[in-house]
Input
Amino acid sequence: MLYYIGLKRKDLATLTIARPADLNRFLSACEPVSAGTENLRRIYINNYLMWLGSYGNLVLQKTGQATDNLMEQRRERLSPGRSTTGRRQNVYALGSISQQVVGNLRKTIGSRMQQATPDEVSQFAVFFSSLHRNDLWPKNKDRALRNELLIKLLLQTGGRVSELLAIKDTDLVTGKQMVQFARRHNDPDDPRKNNPTLKTYDRQLRLSRETWELLMEWLDVQDELTAHNPQAFLFVNLTRDPRYAGQPMSRMAVDQMIREVCVAAGIKPFGAHQLRHLYVRELAKLAREQGWTNEEWRKAATYLLGWSLTSKMPALYLGEAANQEADLQMKQLWTERGLEVE
Output
């Protein structure tokens, strides 16, 4: 099962119809699916097998076949992952189904696009603002409109991708041209397996008039896609498949959107979270230029970025801005003294 999990559906269909005479040659000619698709398949298989194991335990207990030895073996094989302090991923028992199926997920597009220099991210923002959206996505005007709005919100609010994907129509404060980032864990209206949500506190952020008008333009399109549902999510899929049209977007779709802009700009692809870093750096630079006190900076950054009150991030970014300014002043001093800078 695991050997064939990376094959595309057409190749899997071929295997189910008739086993090729030269299986190894057939497999070497097959085109593999993306890392994200393979990971989803592994997770779905694992979830199904875990459910099947629980159901099997009930059947064995009801039929009187649940011997101690058999149940111990099933516990070892069907052991779910457990989280450990200081680690984000689960740890799976050796030899368990979970360890074999999802213990070593492949790196996805998002995980391969995490590293980017500040200059590259700034170049992205300049490039994006210099083009019309239809130049980047010429085949679908609605898609171009949605993508432009989402990227502008990332740049102007510094919001996390999960926070933007969790925005609903009801989160728009029309009279103030503001958007609310609302915390909703286990939202029953969200069909996504991993519901995007806020990490810390609710907050409202003001948008520029241009971005607000763009948002209103997108709402006309989104309203039709979601059948005028007032509880609909702001960012939804645009597809001809009726099963997915109007459904909320995924994180993977946002990273793909950023990747497309990076490729057009000739920049090494990076993850969407880098735009949040750009926002914080620009905010820290503004704070130093305006002469904010450390406390003023901490309060503003904590609210605008949705950090916890005990977060060390405000001090980290303010220190980074100070280091950059000190480096710039040192280079200027060397230049004035006739020393070679670079």
Observations:
- Residues 84-88, 109-113 have pLDDT under 50 and may be disordered.
- DSSP finds 15 helices and five strands in the chain.
- The chain has three domains: 34-102, 113-272, 277-336.
